[in-house]
Amino acid sequence: PSLSEERDIIRKRSVMLNLHNLQMPFSNTWKYGILALAILLLLVALTILTCQICQLQKHNRTRREKRCHSRGWVRIKAANGIWGKKMPPLLHDTTKQSNADVEELQTELNDPSPCLISSSSRTEDLSSVSSHLGPLPCSRGTLKFSLLYFRERCDLLLTGLEAWGLPRHGCAESTIRVRLLRQVPSHIPGLQCMVQEWQSQVVKNCNRQAFGDHFVFSLQDAEVEKSTLKLEVQRFDKYSRKTVLGEVRVTLSELKASQSLVLCKELQKTTKDIVGEVLVSLKCLPISQRIEVGLLKAKTTSPGRTAEKNVYARIEVFCGRHREKHQKSRPRAHTPLIIFNETFLFHMPEPAAWDCTVLVSIYEVDSDSRHLIGQATLGKRRANEAADHWDLMIKSIQQPVAKWHPLLI
């Protein structure tokens, strides 16, 4: 090519190179700007979505609380047959005779007159105080109920179960376990037998929980002085784990025939009751790193005819965070003195780390369910006899050491 053509080619290349240098930074700036704007819009959308979810949850919580407060909701539940589903056959028979008594007690519970308070320092009605001031600091909650004893029919009627001031944790559900205990003369101090046991319906967490159940206990007039009513408030979380919030105990000697007693009592720390004893032997085998648990005998205080039912024992061993697989005994007839004579072997870690716990649970087997009779706990960190038994096992290598332990419930 000629010289002029070469100059035109060089000029075109320089122009194209200058245009390319101008376009590159301009395009990158636009790209980053659009990306930043998209991220900003996404954050705004997420913030709006979170606010809407929070408002929806708050609205649903308010609706649930209003629904719990309304008495019509409790009446609808009762009319749908919840009482009838929870009542055993004995309760069905007795409630036919006491429907008028229940209605009379319900009117007394709705009466704004003050009820009896367990604490002598408080003379005001807890129901009215809690609605204005809320629960007291370090308070476990308050339980309100009514008792009426019919001497002619030998029946004890429990109704009007209502609780407030319970600690609130999310969407937990609450229930009340009712046990009727009776003192038994024995060489063991505080020995009692569990006469009857009931479970109330489950109510979702709200400010004031009305359970809407009523229970009837068969109780002779001579047994009233030796009997105690234990009401235990339990809570279930979304994983169905049970937590005991507290208990209320009432000595039935305070009752008078054909006179209803309305009580408001604060929940106290729950305590165990002795319902029997079990003879357990422990044997230390350090060479094979095992422990031998021998279940020999058990004494129970269950009332009535129980020889037709069977019982079995469940042995569990915990060592720190390690838990051995549980083992069960063969079923035996439920007599006042149960003979097991069985041994169970559990693998243990090094002897220096033997800081373990042995849990012995005895269950009564029914046709379609099982019932816990009592539990005994043995270990190094247990109190009194349980710790002494564990120390004797450590000192007596390869020699079984047997000892009686109380069954608690």
UniProtKB/TrEMBL annotation:
<dbReference type="Pfam" id="PF00168">
    <property type="entry name" value="C2"/>
</dbReference>
<feature type="domain" description="C2">
    <location>
        <begin position="274"/>
        <end position="405"/>
    </location>
</feature>
<protein>
    <submittedName>
        <fullName>SYT11 protein</fullName>
    </submittedName>
</protein>
<dbReference type="GO" id="GO:0030672">
    <property type="term" value="C:synaptic vesicle membrane"/>
</dbReference>
<feature type="domain" description="C2">
    <location>
        <begin position="139"/>
        <end position="265"/>
    </location>
</feature>
<dbReference type="GO" id="GO:0048488">
    <property type="term" value="P:synaptic vesicle endocytosis"/>
</dbReference>
<keyword id="KW-1133">Transmembrane helix</keyword>
<dbReference type="GO" id="GO:0005509">
    <property type="term" value="F:calcium ion binding"/>
</dbReference>
<dbReference type="InterPro" id="IPR035892">
    <property type="entry name" value="C2_domain_sf"/>
</dbReference>
<dbReference type="GO" id="GO:0000149">
    <property type="term" value="F:SNARE binding"/>
</dbReference>
<dbReference type="GO" id="GO:0031045">
    <property type="term" value="C:dense core granule"/>
</dbReference>
<feature type="transmembrane region" description="Helical">
    <location>
        <begin position="32"/>
        <end position="54"/>
    </location>
</feature>
<dbReference type="InterPro" id="IPR000008">
    <property type="entry name" value="C2_dom"/>
</dbReference>
<dbReference type="GO" id="GO:0001786">
    <property type="term" value="F:phosphatidylserine binding"/>
</dbReference>
<dbReference type="GO" id="GO:0005886">
    <property type="term" value="C:plasma membrane"/>
</dbReference>
<dbReference type="GO" id="GO:0048791">
    <property type="term" value="P:calcium ion-regulated exocytosis of neurotransmitter"/>
</dbReference>
<keyword id="KW-0812">Transmembrane</keyword>
<keyword id="KW-0472">Membrane</keyword>
<dbReference type="GO" id="GO:0030276">
    <property type="term" value="F:clathrin binding"/>
</dbReference>
<dbReference type="GO" id="GO:0005544">
    <property type="term" value="F:calcium-dependent phospholipid binding"/>
</dbReference>
<dbReference type="GO" id="GO:0030424">
    <property type="term" value="C:axon"/>
</dbReference>
<comment type="similarity">
    <text>Belongs to the synaptotagmin family.</text>
</comment>
